[in-house]
Amino acid sequence: MGQNNPTPAAVQIRLEQNSLTIDTLQLGEIEGIHHGTHRYGMWWWLNRGYTPAGVEAWNCVRALDYLETRPEVDKTRFGVTGRSGGGAYSWWIAAIDERIKVAVPTAGITDLQNHVVDGCVEGHCDCMFMVNTYRWDYPQVAALVAPRPLLISNTDSDGIFPLDGVVRTFDKVRRIYRLFDKEKKGTSADVALNISPGPHKDTQELNTHEFRWFNHYLKGDDSPIDSRAPKYFQPEELKVFAKLPEDQINTKVHETFVGKAQPEVPKDKLTWENVRNGWMTTLRDKSFPGWPTKQDIFDLEDPFGNTPGAVQRNSHPHFAFLASRDGIHLAAYDFWSDFGIQMRIFTLHNDALVKPELVVLNALDDQGWREMLATIRPAFEPELSQEMLLPANDKSWQSTKAMLLKFPWMMCYVCPRGVGPASFDQSEKKQIQNRRRFYLLGEPLDCMQVWDVRQAIRHVRRANQMDKDTPLWLQATGSTAGVALYASLYEPGIKRLDLYDLPKTHRDGPTFLNVERFLDMPQAVAMAAERTKVVIYQDDDSGWEYPQAVAKALKWPEEQIQIRRKPAEK
User: Fold this and answer.
1) Are 57 and 22 in contact (CB under 8 A)?
2) Which residues on neighbouring strands pair with residue 82, listed in sequence order?
3) CA angle 171, 174, 175 (to 5 degrees)
4) How many CB atoms lie within 10 A of CB 265?
5) What is the DSSP string of 107-133?
6) How confident is the model over 32-60, as a mean pLDDT?
7) CB 98 within 8 A of CB 148
8) In the prediction, which pLDDT does 306 show?
9) Contact between 154 and 81 (Cβ < 8 Å)
């Protein structure tokens, strides 16, 4: 969730008879932010391991701490309930704090099938979602409440908490309660599902069953409910602040709630090796948990009719087309990077080339993809008829052709998932919501793009029968330069990285789970530069003081990290 940081200054608590109501971060008197990713583009929240769900959970913990100080409160009989966002917060606090003895989350949970496949993620703000480092489904959160009394409550026509997912979640949680002998078929139990008619809103039926559940487990009272739950206060009577406090941090808590690492420059080789090895292990466990395992790779279905896994172990990538014009050879071939994720690699080289002296793999973003198509369009337009084309760039083609006719080089191009031929729905809304699906699964799009570039490196080598002495360079621009940088950390034999406008911090991309909690882009550059020449093209010399200091401390060659000015536009 979050770290043990102080509670935001403007958490508002109101003791109303025997209950405590907490303002939510966004909908209270001091308005913070719940909609960071899809409304404000704050994808860096994931880099920091931040979610407003963490703040809401921590506020609930501090609310219990406060209640324990009240002389009229019995701290052995805490219960929690809430609806919608309040239902989610009820799950968080009941799961992480055993001081909650009874829980009735209402319209606050459903499974990943509903969220990701059925699209319910598009109806929720970020406060509903944990940073899913360990790739849990929601029944695992619910199971953490066991064996304490739990009533899952929902209406039957809730569009953002559909009944089928709620029932699936309940069925899985009930199995956990059976392990505690808390639920047996045909008997009353400490876990139950309450469904009442209605949409996503408070209803009398929901309230009545919640009251009865609390009365039974907290008071031992099973008498009928004779109240219609009237409102005791009008909204304006609940206002706390005549003037908002100047020291409030609600509006900016996302900047401080989870700390950012500040690594020091190592003093010697042994210190560096220990730090670097720790970062590599943590990256794999905390930032890239969604990568396929070795067995997953072998079990990939082969779309070309071979036995399962054969395409990964033995076969060359499948060639899509070949063409030759102006003395230049163009080839395209496909491979499976992941389950259901097919990639296409384009290669360009001199027709007379037998063995390349250099292979350059370009990892493309959307702009790079369009520019590549515009460059080769003057010669290869018939082969590109199915692709979205910019106007032909004859000047760029003549320059590229002259280079390939002069040098025994091979230029390769790949679009990781979400880009070019591997793109998704291009509308801005769908692009955002697809990215939210990925992060909810614990595998943000940028993390999986690193995997795709790794797979492309392997398939470039395989398709072109490269030996270990053929140098391979990686090139990329912007956020994708960060993707290529991290791919190089996991693939041996990359001789050089050409990175254009590489973000100086992960806050500007790419988005990897939790990464800023232990390192940032300068530390990644240092790790890459230990074994690969890194050339960064940008408009100034700043941003890379850390890797330069590491190189100096460890006496790496001066040319190992180079900062150059960007070449003029073609």
Assistant:
1) no
2) 105
3) 95
4) 17
5) S----HIIIIIS-GGGG--GGG----T
6) 94
7) yes
8) 41
9) no
